[in-house]
Amino acid sequence: MDLDYLLEQAKKAAQQAYSPYSGYRVGAALLCDNGSIYTGCNVENASYSLTICAERNAVFKAVSDGQRDFSAIAIYVDSEEIFPPCGACRQVLAEFNPRMQILYANRRGNVLSDLETLLPQAFNLQEDEPGNF
Ligand code: THU
To answer: Which of 1, 87, 116, 117 has its C-alpha lying 20 to 30 A from 123's C-alpha?
Structure first.
């Protein structure tokens, strides 16, 4: 799958953003191993903390639809500012693939990274992790 195409889908999804409070339009496009793509946008709320990010909306849509195997996510923010995914979204992505490719972009360009880089030593409930416990 062409990551440029995934980014185009994220860009389109950003147009659906409901963000009257921050003004930031964010879109995400999540690539499933079966080739399907799920998109999401940020949805804000007058009670600010109830806001949900674009990435988590995309993941929750996909999982609700029976998908659990993801290889990449593209995130677009319609802004000049750099915008890597927030910590909460990184943790939610790590639940499904701690090595997922992450392409994040704004109006000026994009950065290709992965979850191992953005969230090293992610929290999980496996007992086979190394350490002095
Ligand atoms: N936002 C996202 O959609 N994804 C992120 O990873 C970080 C933040 C949204 C939430 C809020 O609507 C706006 O960007 C400003 O924080």
So the answer is: 1
